[in-house]
Structure formats: C-alpha cells, structure tokens
Design a protein that fits this description.
Strand order of the largest sheet: 1-3-2
Shape: globular
Number of helices: 4
Oligomer: single chain
Length: 86
C-alpha cells in the first residue's frame, strides 16, 4: 500500500540512520546500494534504479509517495534498534 510522506521527513530519516545503513538495507533486500540511496532522494540512475518514489512539489520539500515501504520500514526498524542500544 502506498505511503505519503514529505521529502524533508524522508531525508531526516535518512540523515538519522547510522553509518553503513544503506549497505545493510541493500544486502538484506538483495539490491544495489544506489537504488536504496535513490529511494531516499538520490538520483544515480546509471548505477541504481527508481524504487517507486514519486515526488511532487509542495511545502516541506514536497510530497513523496512511496509505492513500497519495505525500505522505509527497514530503515525505521534500524533507527529504533540503534536508539535502544544507546
């Protein structure tokens, strides 16, 4: 089911992730790390693919519609676990 989030919220999540998280997510989902970065607003489509992220202009960086929340869910889980460890 698609999820709507602001671009700034998505970037805040990405920026809060521990070092190396993009590689961890890519490894767990058996995908290219550049595709995971593209999910969080990157634009390296030579090495990665579009991960079902649709950005529309608007307040707070614009609106992002995520077709699949698997990467976001995994990132939030990693964030939650890192908070418990600290």
């Amino acid at each position: 089911m698609p999820k709507t989030i602001t671009f700034n919220q998505l970037r805040k999540i990405k920026d809060s992730l521990p070092e190396g998280t993009m590689h961890v997510i890519a490894d767990r989902l058996n995908m290219n790390v550049h595709s995971v970065r593209n999910y969080f607003g990157g634009a390296n489509y030579d090495l990665g693919t579009n991960m079902g992220v649709h950005i529309e202009p608007g307040p707070d960086g614009g609106i992002v519609i995520l077709d699949d929340t698997k990467i976001l869910d995994m990132a939030l889980e990693i964030l939650e676990n890192s908070k418990k460890e600290n």
